[in-house]
Amino acid sequence: MTAAGGAARQPHVLVVDDEPAVRDLLVPLLEEEGFAVDTADRGDAALRALGAGLYDLVLLDVRLPGPDGISVLAGGRALQADAQFILMTGHASVDAAVEAMRLGAFDYVRKPFHVDELLATCERALGERALR
């Protein structure tokens, strides 16, 4: 991605997961890949972050304290129309996946995920965002 003047800009990612182990895995991994990363551990904290800053990508757990991931997705899309949302869950259900896609999620991945596959999904999401 390039910012005004042609300089490359770090993609800004929000990782939303109530499990510290998931955040502790994703933050250094994404930073190593060149992303600027913020985190939230609850749905309400995620919505505050989405209202305060601009994000290119949101990695969002479905099950969260406070508003759940589906609710954060619905509210977050209104706050961040250009951001790509990838939902993550260890409790996959067809109904939740269908609802996530209906609300505009880019993808829906199951935990435990393979890091390489998640990174590839992030790159595809950012590529699609750049085309818009």
Strand order of the largest sheet: 2-1-3-4-5
Say how many strands there are.
Answer: 5
Low-confidence stretches: 1-6
Average predicted confidence as pLDDT? 91
- The secondary structure category is alpha/beta
Beta-strand content estimate = 15-25%
Can you describe this structure?
The two termini are 12 Å apart. This protein is an alpha/beta fold and 132 residues long. It is globular, with a radius of gyration of 14 Å. The protein contains five helices and five strands. It has a five-stranded parallel beta sheet, with helices on both faces. The protein has helices at 20-32, 43-52, 69-79, 94-102, 115-131, and strands at residues 12-16, 36-40, 57-61, 84-89, 107-110.
Could you outline the blueprint of secondary structure elements for this entry?
Layout: E1 12-16, H1 20-32, E2 36-40, H2 43-52, E3 57-61, H3 69-79, E4 84-89, H4 94-102, E5 107-110, H5 115-131
Parallel strand pairs: 1-2, 1-3, 3-4, 4-5
Helix pairs in contact: 2-3
Output the keywords.
about 130 residues, alpha/beta, five-stranded parallel beta sheet, 5 helices, globular, disordered N terminus
Brief description of this entry?
The protein is of the alpha/beta class and 132 residues long. The protein is 45% helix and 19% strand. Helix 2 runs parallel beside helix 3 (69-79).
